[in-house]
Amino acid sequence: MNHLVFQTVVLYAVLYFGQGNHVIQPRNLKVSMNLTLQQLLLEWYVSDDPKTNHCEIDIVFTIQIYRTEENNIILTENYTTALNKSNQPLNWSWISDIPLQCATHGVRLRSMVAPLEAWSNWTSWEAVDGLDVLNDSKGYIFPYEKYVEEGSSVTFCCIAKKNEHVTNYTFHKHTEIVNTTQQRIMFTETAVPLTSEMGLSVYCRFSYQSSFSDLDRTVLFVTRQPDEPRLLDCETKDMVELKCTWDPGEIYSYNDNCLTEFILSDVSHTKTYCSCTKQCRLCQFKISGEQTKYNLTLVSKNCLGQKQAYVDIDVANRVLLPPPDQLSVGYQNATMIQLYWTLKPIMKTLLVVCQVNIFSLDEEEKQYNMTVLSSPPLHPHINLHGLQVYTNYTLKVRCAAANDLFWKWSKWSQTITIQTNESAPAGQLDIWGDISPGFKERNVTVFWKASPGFQANGNIKTYEICWENVEQSGGCHSTKSNNYTISLNSQSYKITVWAKNSASASPPSVLHLSAAEDNGDVKYSEENTTGNTAHGIYVSWKPTSKFDGYVVDWCNYPRSQPCDFQWRRFGQNESSTIITSGAFSRGMRYTFRVYGTQGNRMCLLEKKTKYLKELEPVQDPSFNISAVTSSSVTVSWESYPEDSQLGFIRGYNVYIKMANRNCTLKLSETLLFPGDLVACKHTIKDRNEKKLTLRNLEPGITYLLAVQAYSVNPRNMADKFEPVTTQLERNWFHRLLPPLITVPLMIIICVCFWKSDCVRNYLFPEVPHPHVSPVKKTLVVIEDHEVTPDRLVVMKKPDISIDSLLFEGRAIENATYFNPSCCQSLQDQEGASRKLSCASTSYRPLQDFVKSRPTTSCPPETGQSNLNYVSQIKVPLLGVLQGASPSFREP
Ligand SMILES: *[C@@H]1O[C@H](CO)[C@@H](O)[C@H](O)[C@H]1NC(C)=O
Ligand SMILES: *[C@@H]1O[C@H](CO)[C@@H](O)[C@H](O)[C@H]1NC(C)=O
Ligand SMILES: *[C@@H]1O[C@H](CO)[C@@H](O)[C@H](O)[C@H]1NC(C)=O
Ligand SMILES: *[C@@H]1O[C@H](CO)[C@@H](O)[C@H](O)[C@H]1NC(C)=O
Ligand SMILES: *[C@@H]1O[C@H](CO)[C@@H](O)[C@H](O)[C@H]1NC(C)=O
Ligand SMILES: *[C@@H]1O[C@H](CO)[C@@H](O)[C@H](O)[C@H]1NC(C)=O
Ligand SMILES: *[C@@H]1O[C@H](CO)[C@@H](O)[C@H](O)[C@H]1NC(C)=O
Ligand SMILES: *[C@@H]1O[C@H](CO)[C@@H](O)[C@H](O)[C@H]1NC(C)=O
Ligand SMILES: *[C@@H]1O[C@H](CO)[C@@H](O)[C@H](O)[C@H]1NC(C)=O
């Protein structure tokens, strides 16, 4: 009875204990290594438990790993799983942070039925020895060629062969000395730096080696996980193929064992479209059937990790058309271009917008939009109106899906340059004439230039010039030049000029040339440089209410032929101008003619000779002294090189001085010098003079002479004096000698006179009597070749005046009439007084000019008794014109 009771109590106790301490003991733990994966693999069973026969229970295992070398439990981890009859044996794995070969690992575990039952007993430690290579016949280094992430810690170990030990190791050129007798050592490098493809070398030196050997070397590759791909997007040019592109970021590893791979797939990774390695950045695949929406994921991965990017696209909204091509012109005229281009066909019919860009050098770039359907034939065109005539336009086209589906413009097509057609030149030429009057014929050079309103509208091929007189006789000429010279008789003429391009001709410009007439005087003035600017010459005139405008003309190169004839027009209220020209040079003389326009009439008002600038200082000429008598001396000097200084030299000063004597020469200015010296100065107001004869000198006296050129500005006295001594008076014998000779001579003459005829006839054959014809009715000119072509010196001729140069104009409908006589009334008031004085100075009896006559016994009444000078211009009589038609202009 008692025995039964005990049994029952024990049973209940066991039942009670079993319910309260439900323990399942792990058994048969086996530990192994997968060295490739550096994994520790655990495998175990649990004791049979009746409760687990019927149902699943949650069970938690605590797993501990012990590393002998570190003498430490390096891991305690809970592993929870659902336990049933069929899932045994249980498995768990762990990746070691150090090479498994480097240490001995011990593993144990215990279990607990969840939740919060009692722990089972620990299993015993199961060791797995990495040292099983220890007794090998060679040494090792672990890990072998491992890839690790930048900055991580890496543990290495060196294992010597049987019965040897490790003496040394180097990591990345840094040698560590170890002093052990150990067969195996372990060392850890922290924060390893990023390496190149070569990696970092690690050497171990063993006791049996005298130095490091390549055999005991390994390489560590330090790299990074791939960057996350950026800018993943896709587009299609034809809706047949989708092209996805991305920025792969930086690639850190190129070694085959850790290549970066890109995989483009759908989001669920069920369909992979592309995979590529290294720096690949695009993937192209065919759009499947009707699918237009794609959710794509791009994975970039290497041996260390992976990153992803996503994109959702609608293919219709990703159409990037290829650039349009075959740009061509259908029709064009002067103001319009019809531009055609071609589009590549696309799978679906879309609304496409094309943008046409048109550009020319002088207009702003313009753009036009045009919408077309993307269904063949794809040859859209656009009419571009309002273009400029004869202009090069550069055109290009780009297209894109229109409206909501707009994604991106295509690239621009290649450009095409089209020149619009020519049209008739617009506006008129500004024409002007330069007349060289002759005796019977005038040489009229007609010049033209584009007026401000003139537009060539093409390539001007020729200028047409026609002329006709009242009798309708005349001619025409076609030229590419900007001027033409016609020889016309003295009748009035109508001259017409127009410009022609390949389209047509401009409206004509007309110049009416009136009959050549005498015209009286034109005011002529020579001026200095007053009013000029650094590069411009000041020209002024007296404006009169009579005129409605003014024209100034001149030659840019007055010395050359052609002289580069220029003219400028001025308004009614203008009375002066600064004429600038790059051609103007210092010291050169320029002649400006000022014309007034009166209604449509024009007339020459004034001629002015001006300089741009004077040259300073003027050099004095070298001089010669000749013809020395007892009372006179002739001084002559060289004239100046014309190119340099002629323009501003106004004349010469001749200085004469004697020691302690007063200046006795008449009409000379007397100058007082320091030391009681007195000099006479004679001023010659003609730059063309080359000679001066000094008279009334005293015999046997030494005079000092100097010649000085002067310009507009006054100068100090010359300093280079040269001495000359006049001849002595003759002695008494010489005084007596003339009577001794003259008395018999007189007797002979008287006899001869008495017998004059016979003597004369005997002595002299018949000689024509010198006859001086009057200068009247004869135009006498001197053409000064050394001066400018228009620098002609004209001696007064009463009937045909040089002033017939004057133009008079009457313009009717753009026609300009030249009529010289129109100015007369205007100029009479001013001219009357001047005419008189002009005549008296410019006209001199011919005899005076034939040659220098220093010995004349009758001084001319002008009072210049002791000074006769020879003018280069006025004196040599160059020609008497009779019917010839010389080309000349008045100064
Ligand atoms: C290690 O694991 C890899 C991958 O699972 C396997 O291919 C290899 O056979 C395993 N090696 C050993 C020795 O178990
Ligand atoms: C494992 O689980 C037990 C019970 O839940 C807990 O007390 C212990 O702290 C856990 N150990 C670790 C390492 O998480
Ligand atoms: C647990 O260990 C104790 C003491 O070593 C032992 O008495 C007991 O039987 C063990 N429990 C099991 C289930 O093996
Ligand atoms: C370690 O290597 C260096 C260089 O090879 C050598 O000079 C040195 O003696 C070695 N140290 C030991 C302890 O062997
Ligand atoms: C190396 O160890 C031996 C004994 O283990 C010792 O005698 C020797 O001094 C040590 N050498 C160095 C450089 O520490
Ligand atoms: C794609 O993704 C969008 C949101 O990101 C979702 O609404 C849509 O259903 C997805 N489509 C597919 C085909 O997975
Ligand atoms: C160019 O052609 C267009 C279209 O035919 C026309 O409207 C325009 O007037 C033409 N322009 C010229 C300058 O002929
Ligand atoms: C042409 O179309 C584009 C895109 O629709 C738009 O941005 C642009 O303003 C348009 N230009 C003109 C001149 O209409
Ligand atoms: C247009 O370009 C062509 C070729 O460069 C050139 O010969 C022509 O002179 C240009 N036309 C104009 C009006 O600039």
UniProtKB/TrEMBL annotation:
Pfam families from the UniProt entry: fn3, LIFR_D2, LIFR_D4
First-listed, main subcellular location of the protein, grouped into a coarse class: membrane
Alphabetical keyword list: Disulfide bond, Glycoprotein, Membrane, Receptor, Repeat, Signal, Transmembrane, Transmembrane helix
Record field: transmembrane: none
SUPFAM superfamilies: Fibronectin type III
Residues in Fibronectin type-III domain copies: 323-423, 617-729
Keyword set includes Cell division: no
InterPro entries per the UniProt record, alphabetical: FN3_dom, FN3_sf, Hematopoietin_rcpt_Gp130_CS, Ig-like_fold, LIFR_D2, Type1_Cytokine_Rcpt_Type2
First and last residue of the signal peptide: 1-20
This protein's record includes keyword Transport: no
Subcellular location: Membrane
Bilayer topology term: Single-pass type I membrane protein
Family: Belongs to the type I cytokine receptor family. Type 2 subfamily.
Protein name: Oncostatin-M-specific receptor subunit beta-like isoform X1
Organismal lineage: Eukaryota, Metazoa, Chordata, Craniata, Vertebrata
Gene coding for it: LOC110080084
